Fold:
Amino acid sequence: MIANRRVFMMTVAATGAGAVLLQPAHAQATLDVKDPQAVALGYVVDTAKADAKKYPKHSADQTCSNCALYQGKAGDAAAPCTLFAGKLVPGKAWCSAWVKKA
Ligand code: SF4
Structure:
């Protein structure tokens, strides 16, 4: 009885650990607009909402998806950005560190 219980508990533990290890990359959290670095860079989840007065060089065609620091493909809904380690940014987002993708 006790041995069966021990096996059961080990199975649960192993399965739980496996679930964590098998989490897909897209389970990463999306960057919070209140993140201090995001605030400092004028980050917005929609490029159309960028502060035009504060960032006069911004234009509506600048988005994360066409930024050199974006780690995803053009059509991806969201992807990591090298500036914000461990976080995802939406393809249509923007920040003042935007650099045209070559
Ligand atoms: S650096 Fe580029 S990809 Fe990263 S948040 Fe700013 S605009 Fe988006």
In short: The two ends are 65 Å apart (CA to CA).
